[in-house]
Amino acid sequence: MNVQLASHLNSLLASFILLTAFGLVVQRRMNALLHLFAWQGFFLAVSTAIVGYLGGAHDLYISSILTLAIKVVLLPYILHRLIVKLKIHKEVETVVNIPATMLMGIVLVIFSYHLTAPIRELSTLVTRSTLAVALATVMLGFLMMITRKHAVTQIIGFLAMENGLLFAATSATYGMPLVVELGVALDLLIAAFIFGMFFFHISTTFDSLDVDQMARLKEED
Amino acid sequence: MNIDPFIVEVFQVAVLLIVAPLFTGWIKMLKCWFQGRTSPSLFQPWRDILKLFTKDVTLAENASWIFRFTPYLVFGVSVIAGGIIPVLSMDLPLSATADVIALVALFSIARFFTALAGMDIGTAFGGMGASREMTIASLAEPAMLMAVFAVSLVGKSTSLSQMAIVISQGHSLLRPSLAFALLAFILITLAETGRIPVDNPATHLELTMIHEAMILEYSGRHLALIEWASMMKLFLFAVLGIASFFPWGIPRNGELFAVAVALPVLLFKLAGIGVVLVLIETGLAKMRIFRITEFLGSAFLFATIGMLSYFMLE
Amino acid sequence: MLLSPISIISSSFAVLLLVLALTPFLRLNQRLLINVGFFLATIASFFAAVAGFWSLADGMTTQIILPIGLPDLPFHLRIDLLSGYFLAVVGLLAFFVSIYSIGYVKGFLGQRSVTHLLVFYVLFLAGMLLVVLADDALFFLIAWEMMAASSYFLVLYEDERVENRRAAFLYLVVAHVGAIAILLSFGVLAGLTTGFSGFQNYTFDAMRAAHLPPELATLAFLLAFVGFSAKAGVIPLHIWLPEAHPVAPSNVSALMSGVMLKTAIYGIVRIVFDLIHTFPWWWGAMVLVFGLVSAVMGVLYALMQHDLKRLLAYHSVENIGIILIGIGLAMIFTSFNMSLLAALALIAGLYHTLNHAMFKGLLFMGAGSVLHATHERNMEDMGGLIRFMPWTAVFFLIGCISISALPPFNGFVSEWLTYQAFLLSPALPSPLLNLMIPLGAALLALTSALAAACFVKAFGVTFLGHHRGHHGGRIHEAKWSMRLGMLLAALACFGLGIFPTYMIRWMDPLAEKMVGGKIAASASGLGWMWLTPIAAERASYSAPLAFIGILAVVIATYLLLHARPGAIHRAPLWDCGFEKVTSRMQYTATSFAMPLRRIFGFLFSIKEHVRQFPPAPHPAFPDRLHYHLRVRDRFWTWMYQPVIDVSFWLSRRIGRMQQGRIQIYLIYSFVTILVLLIFT
Fold it and tell me: Which positions in chain B touch A12 (Cβ < 8 Å)?
């Protein structure tokens, strides 16, 4: 397929990634969050493969398969087992209401577009326009961590941020060196295991995974 | 051989008048099939309308001229709107009468008078329907405008024929802005035409009525006109979506062969839209009134992402 | 030279002076005073409207210098394109309202004297006309003060109630805070830029020619914007509007809401586009943001009201916001030198100025008729008035449709033009503006939809349904002069909606003068029936065709359906089978707005309280309920209350100087003399 069609497809996938990022911020139900995260990983994997084709960087194919394996299959499965084991109820609380979070998300997207404008003018790559979407995904992941009260959603937000970073790497420089990618992927896996252990501890100590409960840990005077 | 645009216009309005109840009948048939029931015939809405036309009108004692005028106004607005949207040709004499924004405003004036008619009779149902309808309309307007904005960025115009021409020339399948605008448009259509999950068109329970509550006191030919007009509104939103997002097949001018082909293409597209609509209606349940804020908020969000992706990605 | 705009406007002032001269002689026969006085006011406003129309149509500018005034500081008068437009706006609405007043003010006969109502009405009218004609800072401020002071006395007309006095005082304070800001702004424009040497720089000509450094220009603009916003009722300086407009007599409210607020818009346009002609884009962005905030918050406040006139007052805040949106967009486009788009946005804003004057005047006149008939302002005690006051109901309905921006009336045309200006903003070179401005368009859509909801509520609760109060058959239709005034305003609303191309052609020279672009040629590109602001392929709207088309279908359907003599039976309400339908079962204004109050309530401080009263035997079967709802403006607690507290604290501190003993005061004077002797 020619370059034009590939870059159109890449833009389309970028918009889907943005959509899933917004979906993660506003969605209430736990299962839906996991599904959205899996879809985000899938779009990211396909996009990485296309960028590999466009830029001729063939190690991106390996990175794409890695993303597929870890972010689409393994991590959602681990999180799902966690949710089932800890008997977490399916609805998630938010700090501010949903329409306000949506508006904050829109403002963050506009802000990230404005920030990446100078890079867009300097870059010569075909994928330069998707850098704004990547930065927006990172910001939206962070927003998700801020506006949610449940520990599991915070880790999903963290993983979404990492998705955004990977996407930024492929848009700005046609991917990171393979060694770095492997290292990051391994770190993620370990982080998931450690989080899992911590959640068990938190759940047994406080009988809930609501992060507001952890405010009890502060010093009283 | 070119047909005179006026003849195409009249033909288009005739198609609108005749096919709109059939479209509603088709949706009812599909819904019954999906739910495993036996469906009424395709022509049942027509039979209902004709039956209502033969019945006498019973007016409340305190109904004023607004109550009697509203059915005619709503019907007139629907007919004129049908003459503006490019359904069977992009070169209609009435197409310069209104662009998309003016078209939405025409629907608004029909809704304004329907709400007033609901309040005219002085029952709790009428006021309730009017209040809820105006609330939903005010939440749907920003989303509608954003979707129009996104499409007009691609079509470089807000005139419907011009948008249809530009979009039919380009490769819009891969444009994310149009994809998101389409998604937003579907959600807005559900809100504006009063389908599940916003309003249940088949209910008469007080807790769940919105449109039905406003027209509860109508009877006879007034009710026939209002029912016909609401079927036409669903048809008009469907063809508005076709003209904005899938305009292939609408003839550029009034060439006889092209117009003759356009009609079956239109019916085929409408059948497809009916399937999508019934899938949505069967899959979702009616939402609480205050959840509609989030529903329309997500429509606004989709439309805004569409607009943002136009600038960011195209 | 005998017949020219300047001579016509002078004769208008002569007629107003005649009224003032005749008043002492006629005041014993109050009825004759009303007839003669308001009739002459009608003639004066008609002359003003003609002068304004002529001046803009011909594109003439005339300047005269009056020898009155301080020595070395004579008054300069100038009638040019911009003043002509605003003269037409003021004159036209004043014409309708003066006709209306002939009948309305007669309602005060026997209760109180109408002499000072007439006198201050004439002074108010004269003040507004002089404000738009003033060509130097001194005369402008004198006319501004005349306008503010006479309207203060008009608001205070029914001064036996304490809330009226409070409202008038609040109005006076905010008006003077604004006037100080305007004075300082003129000071910057006249004094700081050209030095304080001569007095000649106080004329507008001198200010126009002066070369302003950017910081001083910004300072002047900010001061002027604050000052004029206080008069226009832009949020957050809107607090006086919903207090003062309802308590004034309704003809005065119509004038205040309809044209007095527009003099502030005149001031902003004059200072920004005429006196300071080059400015950065962020001024326009600031005006746009204030316009959007006023529009959305104004309509949300209006939705919470159940007092008819307060609701209309908050809608004035909203519409001023919409006008500022148009002007802000024009400023943004001008700063990027896109003159065609700037002309479109400016014409949209100014067209809305005239439209708002027409429909707000009409709505206040209608509210005044309702008040005149029922002696109520509270909508919750009205209902079913369409049977007692059919004509007023029709005119009020036309006003409601116009203000909700629905075709084919005038409100829709100016809002449509504003939307077109928004939709053309992607042509701007700044990517940040490209992304933020469409969000503004969405807010404008929200505003107009909420306005429609609010007016369904206002018209429905007031005129439709059953009567909720206890007046019964004593309600009568308005007098013929009141109806005539409303009819003329309604016809103006309709005409402005159906013939927008002619209006734009008339306004075009003004846009060209202010921002350098003309849109009339492209606007009537397809003919007079189609409004195509930029190009026919871009967007088009034909009000006459839409109106005639719908009318034709309605008539055809009616005739077809009545070809057979179908019976129409009148029967009691069905209401799903409920038998005992009372007027208390209807929706009230508060209940109509409930869903919107729930959704947008976070913007206000709302306290809602339901109590069973007396305590019922079982909570599932309540006997009587007590419902208490209080909606408060957050700006009062955030902005105004702290300012009031600080000023009281300061004045208490300074009050310590007033010791009461003669010796202390003598010591003050002695110390002052010593200081002056030492230091000069």
Answer: 174-176, 179
